[in-house]
Structure formats: structure tokens, C-alpha cells
Design a protein that fits this description.
Three copies of one chain form a homotrimer.
Chain A: H1 14-30, E1 40-45, H2 50-62, E2 66-70, H3 84-91, E3 97-102, H4 107-114, E4 119-124, H5 130-144, E5 151-155, H6 162-173, E6 177-181, H7 190-198, E7 202-206, H8 209-212, E8 218-221, H9 232-238, H10 246-249, E9 257-259, H11 280-298, E10 347-350, E11 353-359, E12 365-367
């Protein structure tokens, strides 16, 4: 059976997504049952991320497997100039499955293209972080049983907040509704919102959290990530605009979930931690069974088939053939194709947007 | 049964201490017998320390458990500004027990307060390093059978040497006597010496190692830690004042133990390594069975009860209630309460010193 | 049985080398069979090296053992000034076998002299990297069945390329022939070539790769290592001189192996990756079974004896006694004896060169 990877949430069909969330619940209930005994997971972190790295390592250890890798590019061959493709072809000899975090957008896709073993994207720059999305969905499903009709407020820095960009279309696909709550200078990008909007899942876009808090079944607050801001002035102005406090929660439904991908800085006051609606530490803990399920499914060790042979086609996308009028280079300076020169930029049509194509590595869109 | 932590040697009653040292001897004799199979130890090192980190990891692996963590704050979420409390609540989902080294005094106490899993302090700034103290005591007991009447010379930099601060009161409590041997500018702080002094366990304080060497059953030399000195001039002046040499040992008892927490710089000449009295490498090796015993006991996996339900009260301390006249902030700039702003400074009475209170995080004393 | 180490390929007799390569083939075929269950490998990397470190860790995990260590001197006690000797005596208490990479030449020899457990040299500055040599030989033997009469071209930076320095004499000893292909300013050092030359195994030295490519059974290309060059001008001039391309391969034998220790920079064009003669990723993968065999053999866990009690004497070297006229210090500034001052420089005769002695740590030669 050909290998599968998880680079973007779109790699999964809705059936696969549902099967993965069910398997995660089974993992949480029954433990890892040594499913991955004798298997090795490589964690290749070209950017530091304690939370994500340790949750993957914990997941693999709880499955009875073992781990190796690096937490920091300073201790890797990167300094000797090795390409992602060569690193992927090296590491596949040392491990049975690869987890990669990389600052370049599309980097994990390149690793998946070159490695014979499954690759999981643990964050590629500002592009995708699919296991965070799976964890977010698992947390909602565990608390509410399902997604149909749920009203989720995505709040804070929606422009730079990578997690909400992939959460919004998934929520729409699963039948939930969303509010986008952000200051005018940090709106959700149109590209991230398009699918939800065309599905009629966007209830509104507002800068006023107070006005909608009472309607929400879940409030998904995002960290104001200093490292994503162009200037520290812009950071300071926005930081603290949408602080979740006890006062705010007094206006919310009594069972509204407060979610946050963590780490928080000032977005959620410490007083909220003791509120039963605070679900962000539970959410962080959920990352372990979700990643256990994903690792076991990608290694085909679950007994039943969770992931089909081939990955889900992008919705309505006929193929990845390069359109005739595609540009020669990707205009996104953080795209991996602008840094790894053995790669050929490739573009695919954007569904329902005949004027646009998107880079198949970083998903940056341009006029066709 | 409620969880236990080890933040300070004072967390252990004398009975518990004895039981732990006995369990360590059993570990050294019989190995780890897979007591921790399926368990995960997290090593959170916000400051580098090869020796301590690797001895904990070796201990856990020899118990059949597994490890994850970070060795360096540069590869952690610390750079994103996450608090100790939040990190503790995250890591408890990834591991069954936490080992933490942190530059702030009181940091491990905070982690223990917030994590649901046991926390071991592997060094919190200049404050405590209780597993070093346990290892020192285990080494003495293994070589001499017990502590009653032993004469131990604590030698070198007693002002900045964290290990001797917690060793002195423990030795006194166990019936040993001590000499403090230090240059006048680097004396043992009164606070560290108080308990031993009031127990009549301090035989003398002197700058003259030669004068007392003949009376010692053990000489505990300490590293002159460059990183603890305010200036490199002060470091250079003191370095080498108390070098343990073959000439010095010719004046010592034929069975006097030479101990050192390692790494040494120049405090012990290489010629001493071949002297049968040199016990410092054995002492380093003893760190493994001691930490095996501690981990197994904290995880309640030893079959018998080593640690009681609640930790030992501080000697003669009626409680940790805040005295009426306590200060609003801790005067120690390295205290964790001055860096993590969700914490409320708290002070407790100092036994037999009615004029004093001490910070319950860093133990800094001030007038009540 | 006394412990064995692997510091230099010369530590192995030809019988031992053959037995190791056979054991590696068995490891590749049958897996690690949990031979190292309950054993711990320490990886002490004072210089970063992802490839070497991860291949050792993968090997130990595939043998059912466990690993600990550091990947970076910044996270070790090195900053506190600990010597290699003291580190070795500490780590032997935490692990059953030690792998060390260190920038100083002779460093691993020092660790082996002080540790009671086996030590494997994973690279000591520009001196030796014996497991790379074993991997290179395993790759050749696996592809060709043996070495007798094989013609191997060593190509590129032969002056600074550590791997070719130990490969050349081993190939000669095993019956292969070599061409040295290098620009005039980067020739193979005479010292590295002496044994092969006196065995009549050197077919030629040339700057012209094109002229000899048709005669080669294997082309061993080496990375132009920027960090080994005295200036970036020298680096830029040489880089790219011997690029292996499809055009070049059109002149080569249809079954010539293309080898490279990796990581490559520009020495092998990406187009060559799809050529069936490209063997460098297979070579990288071979590092795992080779290291599995070595670890299991050094730990004496293989059932049969692979390594004799004592290591092979250096060819024709009567002993390591210090010659009467030996210098007081080693003239190589990167020699470990010039940095770790408890060491006494020692020199041994050079076989068949009565005027020369070599440092027993770094192998630097001087007039006796």
C-alpha cells in the first residue's frame, strides 16, 4: 500500500478525518497497546517548539515506539547546507516516520515528496499546522459530540494566526458556523475564509467580541505571536485587545468552551483558568491521543484501515498539472521553492476561482 | 494517594530519607526491574547541566521507563514567554513525572504547585539541589554505614556553593559534625548554618584547611563556580585557594573520603584520582541509583510505601500562613515571584527566630 | 574480557573487519533481535552532526537499546571547564557504551583511556571517523562482493577530506587499487597515502577526473567542507571543480558506483540521483546496520566473538613506547594534548620510516 503523509488538513477526506478522531478517542480510552513497538519516529525541528515536539514524542512513547531527532537547527547538518530533499532521504533510513517543523512554507511537502516513509507536517512557517487543527477538532467533538450547528468564534490575530486559517474551512466542512472577531488591521485573509464563506458558514466578521460572545458555543482565542509581526509597534498595539477575562465570560453561555492553541501570553487572564469553561489545558492534553492515532494510522498499525491508499484530492481540484499561464516563480518569499533550487515551482487551479492559481507547495495564490 | 514532590531536602522526613537511601542501595544491587515500564519522565532544563540531566535520564531508562524533554531554553517555548505554571500544566499531559532545572529560585516549587504529576527540583538557581544532597548522603552512608559522629569538612566556596547549604543541616540532623573551611570572603551563610549550629553540630569555622584535615572523616570540596561570582577578579583570587593535593592528603586519615559534586576545575589535583580515598567519581555514579529510588518512590511503584501521603512539615513550622507583618514582595531579585507575576508572594515564620520570616518559594529571610 | 574501543580503523585486524562487515549484513537481513535490551548508548557530540548522531541512535534503538546524550556543547558541562577524562569517567556510570564526536584530534582516544566502557570515535577533528570508513567498505562489499582488484577513484578535496585519509590505506590492505583525483592545491597528504603507495595500490594521482573516469569501479566524491578551509577564497575557488554530472557519468562504466559521505553541497548534481549508479543514499542507509554490528560487537552481545581481547597492533609497530628523541609537545595545534593539560604527549615510531615518529593521540608526524 502506498505511503500517506499529513501535510495539510486537506490531505484527509471527511471520512478519514472522522475515523482519525474516533481512533484518537480509542487511544485516549485504551492507551497505545504497544502498537508501534520496534518503530522509530524522527522529530526534525528546524524551529524550536517544545509543545508540539514533546507531544509527538509522548505520543510515540505511549504507543511503545521510540524517538530520535533534533530540536534546533544549530545542532543539525543544516549549517553544512544540506537540502530538505537530501535530509529526507537520509532520515528515512534512520526512522519509520518523520515529523518536521520548518520555517519555510511548503517544506514538509518537499520532505514528503522525497522520503519513502510517512511525513507529518508539524508547522511549515505561516502555512499549515494540521495536527493542531486535528487537536482543535477533537477537543470540540469530545466536548460536544459533533460539529453540526456549533457556533465558533475565532478571535484575535486572525491575519497571522496559522491555526485559524486551517480551522475555519474544516469547521465549515463539518457543519459548524464561525464568527471572525479581529481588529480591522488583522482580519482573516480572504483565501482562508473563501471555503467557509461559499458554504454560508460565516455568520459575521466583527471587531467587537462583546457583541457576539453570548452567541458562541466555543471561543477560539489566538496568541498574538510577536515573531510574526513586522514591527514591535504593531505588536504592542494589538496585544491585549481581546483579553478573555472573568468579566467577559459573565456574558457567555454557561457551557461555552474557551479554546487556545497555547502558549498564551496575555490573551487569557489567569483568573479564567479556574472557570469550568476553560478548556485550553485539556485541549493541549488532547494533542497526545490525536497524534497517537495519526502515527498509528500512517504506519498502518491500527488493524483496520483508517487512511485510504491515496490522499484526498483537494476539493474540486482536477489535478496538480501546471496551468498554462502559471508564473515561473512563486511570489511568496517564504515559499520553499525560493530557497531550495532543485525544486520546480508548480501551480494548480483554485476551485471556483478561474482567475487564480495557487502554489502547490505554499498555497500562495496569484492571477493565472 | 496525593502526589508528592521533591523540591527541598526538607520535604522528606528522616524516616523517608532513610527509606530512600535503603531503596537506592536496593536499586544499585538489583537494578531497576522494569518498575517504570510504560512511564515517561520529562527533563525540563532551562539551564544546561549534562551531569544532572543524564543521570536522571539514565535512572529512568534503567527503571525501564522513557524520557523526553529539553536541555536548553533556546529550544523551548520559553522564548515565546510561557510561564512556569502553564508549562507545568502542559507537560503533565505528556509525562508521568517532571524533573526541572531553572535559574529562578523557587521555580520548581511553582511547577509542583501547578502540575498534577510529581515534580523533582534538579536545581533552582542558587537555592536547592536536593538530589545532589541525597547522592552525597548516600555516598557517605555506603562508605561508612551511617552518619553518627562522622566529622565532615565542607571546604571551598561555601558562600555560593548551593550543595553545601542543604548538606549542612541534613548532616546535623543525621548526627554528623561539620567543619566549615572557607576563605573569609566566602563563608557559609548564617541561614544555611543556623540549624547545624543550634544542634551543636558545628565543630568550627576556619580558613585553614591544613589545621583540621587530620580530624576529618570526609572532606567535601566544592567547585569555585565562575558563573556565581559577581566579578572575574573575585573568581581569580579565590580559585585554587583550597586545592586538594597528594601533599594535603598525606596529613589526612587513611580512610578519609574525598568528595566533590563535580565538575571540578582545579580544586582537586589529577594526582589525587589514583588515591583510594578519592570518592568523587563513585559519588557521581551513585547519582543513578539514588535517582532511580526517588523516581520509583514518587511514582508509587516500589511495592512498599517509601514516601508518606503528605510531605514532612518544615521542622517546628506550624504552617505556611502568611504572617501579618510580611512584606508585599520578596527582596530576593532571583526569586521566582519577582518574575512570574501571577504568583502571590508568601512568607512563613522561621523556627526559633521570631523576628524573621522566609519566602516560601526561595527561602529568602527578612524581618517580619 | 577487557573492553575494546574503536578510535581508528587500525584498531581492527583484517579478520575483525571482515567479521564486522559480515555481522552488519546479518543485522541488515535479520534486524537487531533486541540484542541490546537494557543497554544504554551515550552520544556525546561536542560538534553538531545530525547524520552521524542519528544513525548511531537509530542503530541502538533497532538493537532494542536506549540512548541519552547531548548534541551540542552549549548544553553540556563543557562550559564549566570539565576535561574529557572527567566527562568519560562520569558518563561511564550513566551508559554502557559511549559515542563521541569532538573537535580536538585524539579526543576519543583520551575518552577511551579513561572510561571503563567501550568508546567509539564518531569523528575527532580532522583526524579519524572510523564508522564512516566501515560504512564505505560495507557499501562497496555489498555491491561488489569483495575488494580484490576494485579500482576506486577518491575525488575532490583530498587534503581536508578526513574520510578518504582512512579509506585509502584500508582499501589497499583489502586488495583494491586507488586513483587520487584532486586539484594540485588539495592533494592527498603523503602520510595518508604512504601505506597504499608502499603496497603498490596507488594507480595514479591526477587533477583530471575525465581522464580516469572510464577505469573506475567506484567514484568516491568528497564534500568541499567550507569549515575546513583557511579562507573563503580558497573554498570558492575549489568548490565545484569536480561536479559529478550526467555528462560525466556517460563516460563511466555502466556499473560504476557513485559514493559520497554526505552531506553534499554541489559535488553531485541532482540529476545524478536518478541514475542507478548513484549509491550515496544507500551508503548513508548502510550506516545503520554497520553501527548496529559495531555496538553489539563492542558490548560482546553477538553470541560469537567478533572482536578479539586486545586491539590489533598498528601494522609493524612494535609498541607505543616513547622514542628517546621524541619531542616534548605535539606540533599539531589541534591535538588534544595541547588542550587537556593532564595528558603527557607520547610518540611512537612510524613503520618503515625510521626518521619519523607520530603522536599516539592525533597521529601527527614529526622527525624523531
Amino acid at each position: 500500500m502506498p505511503k500517506r503523509d499529513l501535510i495539510s488538513p486537506d490531505d484527509l477526506s471527511l471520512e478519514e478525518l472522522t475515523a482519525l478522531l474516533d481512533l484518537a478517542a480509542e487511544m485516549e480510552r485504551d492507551g497505545g497497546r504497544d502498537l508501534c513497538a520496534g518503530k522509530i519516529l524522527a522529530t526534525l525541528f528546524y524551529e524550536p517548539s517544545t509543545r508540539t515536539r514533546l507531544s509527538f514524542e509522548s505520543a510515540m512513547l505511549r504507543l511503545g515506539g521510540r524517538t530520535l531527532g533534533f530540536a534546533d537547527p544549530g545542532t543539525s547538518s543544516v549549517k553544512k547546507g544540506e537540502t530538505i530533499a537530501d535530509t529526507a532521504r537520509m532520515i528515512q533510513a534512520y526512522a519509520d516516520i518523520i515529523v518536521m517543523r520548518h520555517p519555510l512554507e511548503g517544506a514538509a511537502r518537499v520532505a514528503a515528496d522525497y522520503a519513502d516513509v510517512p511525513v507529518i507536517n508539524a508547522g511549515d512557517g505561516g502555512h499549515m499546522h494540521p495536527t493542531q487543527t486535528l487537536t482543535d477538532l477533537y477537543t470540540l467533538k469530545k466536548a460536544r459530540g459533533g460539529f453540526q450547528g456549533l457556533v465558533v468564534g475565532l478571535c484575535g490575530d486572525l491575519k497571522y494566526g496559522r491555526t485559524v486559517h486551517s480551522l475555519a474551512p474544516m469547521l465549515a466542512r463539518l457543519g459548524a458556523k464561525i464568527y471572525c472577531i479581529a481588529p480591522p488591521e488583522l482580519p482573516m485573509p480572504e483565501q482562508a475564509l473563501r471555503e467557509a464563506r461559499s458554504a454560508g458558514a460565516v455568520l459575521g466578521e466583527t471587531a467587537d467580541l462583546d457583541a457576539v460572545i453570548g452567541q458562541l458555543d466555543a471561543l477560539y482565542a489566538t496568541r498574538v505571536q510577536k515573531e510574526r509581526f513586522p514591527s514591535s509597534e504593531e505588536y504592542e498595539r494589538v496585544k491585549g485587545t481581546y483579553v478573555v477575562s472573568a468579566a467577559l465570560l459573565s456574558k457567555a453561555k454557561p457551557d461555552m468552551l474557551v479554546l487556545h492553541p497555547l502558549p498564551r501570553v496575555d490573551e487569557i487572564a489567569y483568573e479564567v483558568d479556574d472557570d469550568p469553561r476553560a478548556a485550553y489545558f485539556e485541549q493541549a492534553a488532547n494533542g497526545v491521543p490525536v497524534r497517537m492515532a495519526l502515527i498509528a494510522a500512517l504506519l498502518r498499525l491500527t488493524g483496520e484501515t483508517v487512511l485510504a491508499e491515496a490522499r484526498a484530492a483537494e476539493p474540486s481540484t482536477p489535478g496538480r498539472a501546471r496551468p498554462r499561464a502559471a508564473p515561473e516563480v512563486c511570489a511568496n518569499p517564504s515559499c520553499v521553492t525560493n530557497h531550495e533550487h532543485y525544486l520546480t515551482p508548480q501551480f494548480a487551479p483554485v476551485p471556483d476561482e478561474s482567475r487564480l492559481v495557487h502554489c502547490i507547495y505554499c498555497d500562495h495564490e496569484v492571477q493565472a
